[in-house]
Design a protein that fits this description.
The complex is a heterodimer of chains A (477) and B (312).
Chain A lengths: L5 H17 L4 H20 L3 H20 L3 H35 L20 H16 L9 H9 L1 H4 L7 H9 L6 H34 L6 H32 L17 H7 L2 H17 L5 H19 L3 H17 L3 E3 L2 E3 L1 H7 L2 H20 L3 H12 L7 H4 L6 H11 L10 H4 L2 H18 L12
Antiparallel strand pairs in A: 1-2
Helix pairs in contact in A: 1-2, 2-6, 3-4, 3-5, 3-6, 4-5, 6-8, 9-10, 9-21, 10-16, 10-17, 12-13, 13-14, 14-16, 16-17
Chain B lengths: L2 H26 L4 H12 L5 E3 L3 H6 L9 E3 L7 H11 L8 E5 L17 H8 L20 H13 L20 H4 L4 H6 L11 H20 L3 E6 L4 H6 L2 H17 L4 E4 L12 E3 L2 E2 L1 H17 L2
Parallel strand pairs in B: 1-2, 1-3, 3-4, 4-5
Antiparallel strand pairs in B: 6-7
Helix pairs in contact in B: 2-5
Classes of the chains: A mainly alpha (477), B alpha/beta (312).
């Protein structure tokens, strides 16, 4: 079930009504309803993979308890390893096995028919990368004594399977989400109204902005050879906004939906196009994923060693490479991660000026804001080419074509009225950058009729621009 | 849940529901080929001898009024073989007198994906022809027409009711009789100017997976019609020369090999192959690179009529 589908428009109010009818005093029943609704939500896509979610949840639930119970460090490590092996194993089989096997066979010029290695005919379960990371972090946090394991299986299943964030995040930590299933949740009118506003804003970003930009991006990227440098760069820049609105729109709907149930999810985006550097970009983009890799990969590498520049650079390369690979088993994503690592490493190179140790990042913060934003936007847009192109060859072809400054005869045909949504989006987000979303402060500024009028305008835009229901890009990860 | 919250939610959403209901009603009242065809099916289904299927190329190439045999054209923009087959399976058994089905096989028909269950015209097939093209049971929103293509319907509502700029005119057999407006008319059919237009829709991407699926379905269609003892005519519609030059030779070769296989397996199949007929179909016969205007349609329909009459 997609958030931008008619089915979700029916599903959400029905579940919500039942949830609050049960009442906050019957917490178990409320959680049970959330679990059933979440599994129904996921099962509509493919019910067979529900077993995978349940298996992952139960393995991590037991691992958590056993890790906490164990007296010896060895035993703790065994149970942590079981959890990690299971999660990474599932991820490897479903997401990476075919990639590694086919690359291995290509490397050694082997024939799939002659050798026992062969690719598997399997589909990638939707949301796999999100929920495995979520459950894995639970086991690690228990091992690190950061949290106490839960002994309530129902609440743990809710933590893993909670439908708003099940298939595309935010990747929640047990320390934030799990306690919310343990305590009573009462209906809060202000929170619920804000949740609805957030859903509206998310739908606007997804349907009006992302899906409309997708038309231009797909047209150009399907035949890059027909377009000049400017058109290709334009498509790449539009793709940045497309993927931002697509994914942050999803996150907004997820956070808004959760809020209606009295549950707070983590913020996942913070106007990433206002970053002064690529390093800052990753603090504003897919925040929960960046934090995951910072805590469990980057942090783990530098923790026990001297924190010199080279160790940090190694930790950064490893983290960014894995972030790239997390997005998918494709060379384009690997290069995407490596490219980001190179830029961030460059930004962090320390050099001496008049006896003072400074970095490029330092200069970027001193630089006029507009120039710094342009700098990071150009670099991020270039990385978007790897993210969007189907193959590595295609990515390099596009970069080469952009760099060769070939005139774009048909460029004027690509600029339609639809592009106006970008300045509208940027203006609204920049003006309300200190708020969680642009609708947040409306209550304080306008009276009800005027507020409703604004909401109606956005709803009309959403209905007007609703096309064939487009899947969210991050579902594939 | 707070009663005040529910009350305000209801008050907020009521105007949206009313507004949407009005838009849906207005959309259903737009002039449409589907509506005309629905009434033709309702009143004349026992008399149709020929059924025409295919995409916009076929829709613009054949005017059923100029054919001697009673004909209905259910060809429609972007309609692929999977939709054709669904229409056939539901409607052919109800057309008691049907003798011939005319199918379109364009240059890239076998390498373009099928319409599938999310095709925006599926609600129209359901509403007007009572054909379930969704590949699943019907859902509540499958009956909502506007929501499946708001961009197109908004433009149509604007041009039909507000700007009154829509000059399209449909005849009794649902053919657009004044369908001349297009890229070619805008440049006064100046061939030099037309040759500079580099952007037009043509599929040059090869996809053997799609080819395999589409080929299988195509033979399934032929088998189905053969079982029902219905004559099949396969058409390739005229294309403008620039379009012909841009075709991918591998896609073309595979298409031609499928047609040749079909001919061998079902020798009774007739062909109207006009795709490369650049002698009879000139620039003035086209709306754009791959659509005929009514003048071109007249020539093409005559060719089809000749074949149909030969089969009588």
């Amino acid at each position: 079930m997609l958030f931008n589908s008619f089915s979700y428009g029916l599903f959400l109010p029905i579940v919500l009504l039942l949830y609050w009818l049960i009442g906050y005093k019957r917490l178990k029943l409320q959680n049970l309803l959330l679990l059933v609704a979440s599994y129904f939500f996921y099962g509509l896509w493919d019910w067979r993979f529900l077993f995978l979610i349940i298996a992952s949840s139960i393995i991590d639930f037991i691992s958590g308890i056993e890790i906490a119970k164990s007296d010896s460090q060895l035993k703790k490590r065994v149970f942590l390893s079981i959890s990690i092996f299971w999660n990474l194993g599932v991820l490897f089989i479903f997401k990476y096995y075919n990639f590694f096997i086919s690359e291995f066979l290509t490397l050694f010029h082997l024939d799939t028919n002659t050798y026992s290695f062969s690719t598997l005919q399997i589909i990638l379960p939707i949301g796999l990368s999100f929920y495995t990371f979520q459950t894995m972090s639970y086991s690690i946090d228990v091992y690190r004594n950061k949290i106490k394991p839960t002994s309530n299986l129902l609440n743990f299943l809710c933590f893993v399977g909670f439908f708003p964030q099940l298939v595309a995040g935010p990747i929640e930590r047990a320390s934030n989400l799990l306690p919310q299933f343990n305590k009573e949740r009462s209906f809060n009118i202000a929170e619920s109204k804000d949740g609805l506003r957030l859903i509206l804003w998310g739908l606007f970003k997804k349907i009006v902005v992302a899906d409309n930009l997708a038309i231009v991006v797909n047209t150009i990227y399907s035949n890059p050879e027909d377009y000049g440098s400017l058109s290709l760069f334009y498509a790449s820049a539009l793709f940045f906004f497309q993927i931002y609105c697509d994914f942050s729109g999803y996150s907004d709907i997820a956070i808004g939906s959760a809020r209606l149930f009295g549950i707070k999810l983590s913020k996942n985006f913070n106007i990433p196009y206002l970053s002064r550097s690529v390093a800052e970009f990753w603090q504003r983009w897919h925040i929960t994923l960046t934090k995951w890799f910072t805590d469990y990969v980057y942090g783990s590498i530098i923790k026990k060693r001297d924190r010199n520049y080279f160790i940090k650079a190694f930790a950064l390369f490893t983290s960014m490479l894995l972030i790239g690979l997390w997005h998918g088993a494709k060379w384009t994503f690997i290069i995407f991660g490596v490219y980001q690592a190179i830029i961030i490493t460059f930004e962090r190179i320390p050099f001496n000026i008049k006896g003072k140790k400074v970095t490029v990042s330092h200069y970027l913060t001193k630089m006029p804001f507009v120039f710094a934003v342009i700098y990071s936007f150009l670099l991020i847009t270039t990385s978007c080419i790897f993210f969007r192109a189907e193959t590595l060859e295609s990515s390099f072809f596009i970069i080469q074509k952009i760099a060769s400054l070939i005139p774009s005869d048909n460029f004027s045909l690509l600029i339609g009225m639809k592009i106006i949504v970008i300045p509208i989006l940027v203006l609204l987000e920049v003006l309300t950058r200190k708020k969680n979303h642009p609708f947040e402060s409306l209550e304080k500024i306008f009276n009800r009729p005027l507020r409703w009028l604004i909401y109606y305008i956005f709803i009309i835009a959403i209905i007007r621009y609703a096309g064939p229901t487009e899947q969210f890009i991050y579902f594939q990860f | 849940m707070n009663r005040k919250f529910i009350t305000y939610c209801i008050l907020f959403f009521i105007p949206i529901l009313i507004g949407y209901y009005l838009i849906e009603t207005v959309t259903l009242n737009l002039p449409s080929r589907f509506k005309i065809n629905q009434s033709l099916i309702k009143n004349n289904k026992d008399s149709f001898e020929t059924l025409i299927l295919g995409s916009s190329q076929m829709k613009d190439a054949v005017n059923p009024e100029w054919l001697d045999s009673p004909t209905i054209s259910l060809a429609s923009s972007s309609q692929h073989h999977d939709s054709d087959f669904k229409l056939m399976k539901t409607l052919v058994p109800t057309f008691k007198n049907l003798k011939t089905v005319v199918l379109e096989v364009s240059y890239s028909h076998f390498e373009l994906p099928h319409n599938g269950s999310n095709f925006w015209k599926n609600p129209l097939y359901l509403k007007y022809y009572n054909v379930n093209a969704f590949n699943r049971s019907i859902r509540l929103n499958d009956r909502l027409i506007y929501l499946k293509n708001p961009s197109l319907y908004s433009k149509l509502i604007l041009s039909n009711y507000l700007l009154k700029s829509n000059k399209d005119s449909l005849n009794k057999k649902a053919f657009y009789i004044n369908n001349y407006e297009g890229v070619f008319s805008r440049v006064n059919y100046n061939e030099a100017k037309i040759s500079t237009i580099s952007l037009f829709k043509i599929n040059t991407i090869e996809d053997l997976r799609i080819y395999k699926t589409n080929k299988e379905l195509f033979f399934e269609i032929l088998e189905y019609l053969d079982d029902k003892n219905i004559q099949v005519i396969i058409c390739t519609v005229p294309m403008y020369k620039e379009y012909l030059h841009k075709r991918n030779p591998s896609i073309l070769l595979r298409r031609d090999s499928v047609l040749s296989m079909a001919n061998k397996k079902y020798p009774s199949i007739e062909f109207v192959e006009k795709e490369e007929d650049t002698i009879n179909f000139e620039v003035h016969d086209f709306i754009n690179h791959n659509h005929l205007n009514p003048d071109g349609a007249k020539k093409f329909t005559e060719s089809l009529n000749t074949i149909l009459n030969q089969n009588e």
